[in-house]
Specification:
It is built from four helices and no strands. With about 120 residues, it is mostly helical. The longest helix is centred in the middle third of the chain and has 30 residues. The protein is elongated and about 60 Å long.
Length: about 120
């Protein structure tokens, strides 16, 4: 049984990028409230609120990678050798990836829309 096949390699490549985009998405609001430099005309509250848009961009890129993994595991035509191994090993990944990226998109939307409210007095 050869576990190093094209399906698994492609899944690993897209999964790695999914994790990179997910981490970047999470880091955006954290960096917005912790970095020492904020533009002169901005407040911490609006700077944090704007980080929600960047969070959404990275979460959408993560979702694109989740879709790629889904497409690899759900082909529309014939499959080659190694597909069964890849599907049995990674069949839960697309659902977990989708759930986490949609959660980040929703959280980023809330931050983008209402992120200034909790920080108005800061």
């Amino acid at each position: 049984m050869n576990t190093d096949n094209n399906y698994i390699n492609d899944i690993k490549k897209h999964s790695k990028l999914f994790y990179v985009f997910t981490v970047l998405s999470i880091l955006m609001p954290i960096l917005a409230i912790t970095i020492p430099w904020i533009p002169q005309d901005e407040t911490l509250a609006t700077w944090f609120q704007r980080s929600g848009s960047a969070m959404i961009v990275f979460a959408l890129l993560a979702e694109a990678k989740a879709i790629e993994v889904h497409n690899i595991l759900n082909p529309s035509g014939f499959v080659g050798l190694g597909f069964d191994d890849a599907q049995s090993k990674y069949y839960k990944h697309p659902a977990m990836f989708n759930l986490s990226s949609f959660t980040l998109i929703a959280l980023g939307t809330l931050i983008w829309g209402y992120g200034d409210i909790p920080l108005k007095n800061v």
